Amino acid sequence: RLCVNAFVADYIKSKPSGEFVRSFLSFAKDETTLQPEHVSLIPKAFKLLRVLDARSLILTRFPTDLLYLVLLKYIAVSCNFKILPEKLSNLWNLQTLIVETSSRTLEIKADIWKLPQLRHVHTNASTSLVESKKELINNAHLKTLSTISPESCRAELFVRAPKLKKLGVCGKLVNVIQPTGQSSLFANLFKLEDLENLKLLNDDITFKLHALPQENMFPRKLTRLTLLNTLLDWKHMSTLGKLEKLEVL
Predict the structure, then answer these.
(1) What burial class does residue 187 get, using C-beta atoms within 10 Å of its C-beta: 0-12 exposed, 13-18 middle, 19+ buried?
(2) Rounded CA gap, 29 and 158, in Å?
(3) Could you tell me what percent of the chain has a pLDDT over 70?
(4) Counting CB atoms within 10 angstroms of each CB, which of 90, 123, 138, 246 has the fewest?
(5) 187 CB contacts (<8 Å, ≥6 apart)?
(6) How many CB atoms lie within 10 A of CB 56?
(7) At a CB cut-off of 8 Å and minimum separation 6, what does 234 contact?
(8) Residues contacting 76, CB < 8 A, separation 6+
(9) What is the pLDDT of residue 195?
(10) Does residue 134 carry a pLDDT above 80?
(11) Residue-wise pLDDT tens digits, 43-84
(12) What are the helix and strand counts (H, E) for the chain?
């Protein structure tokens, strides 16, 4: 395990070599932008990586050389790009993907259903998932999807992730929750029998939510619920009061 917490960019630029390094970590307090010509030095230096957590380094482009590190199980990066490439699905050992971007949106062009070990996807932007046109593949390992766009919350997605425990949705929520309380999102969420943690983040406060679905539309095992920028009237809290297993609001 190699942990570098100071002068991280300078260390990378020195073209290090770590034949037996399995984990490269950096928790430096100061964020540093890593220029494109230096980004690929990480996968070149540590070809047997299983864990990469370098959120103190801001990547200006996705390091395509990273896709050759097929042993990777855990990736956590900071960036300012908007797209994760299609070839990301080549990392067939990947279990955890964490992306922190300065962009408001992120598009994952990779077919995440080709990653049989994938368990957790964390992003800080409204993330779009491509709609796979191939044969439906379920992933019973997938536990976390946070945060995805309302448009990505299709019935097909939730059928593929039957054991999902944590879901974050970020975007214009009025697109999926009507003023009457009817909701295509909640109609699909109800099928997630193991969902315990739900976050609804409205990123456009010029559009407020006028209602919530009835309590019988919420996932049955829901224990944690986060509502942000919804501008809901207080009267709708009575609906949440009827959720018998809710512990944290």
Answers:
(1) middle
(2) 37
(3) 98
(4) 138
(5) 155, 217
(6) 20
(7) none
(8) 52, 53, 54, 55, 96, 98, 99, 100
(9) 96
(10) no
(11) 999 999 999 999 999 998 888 888 999 999 999 999 999 999
(12) 6, 13
What single-letter amino acid sits at 129?
L
CA distance 69 to 65: 8
Asked if pLDDT for residue 135 goes beyond 90, the answer is no
In angstroms, rounded to a whole number, what is the distance separating the alpha carbons of residues 138 and 132? 12
Rounded to whole angstroms, how far apart are CA atoms 69 and 93? 10
pLDDT over 80 at 136, yes or no:
no
Query: What phi and psi, each to the nearest 5 degrees, are found at residue 235?
Result: -60, -25
Q: How many residues does the chain have?
A: 249
Strands 2-3, 51-59: pairing kind: unpaired
- State whether residue 146 is helix, strand or coil: strand
Phi (first) and psi of residue 166, to 5 degrees: -135, 130
* Model confidence at 227: pLDDT above 90: yes
Q: How far apart are CA 235 and CA 127, in angstroms?
A: 31
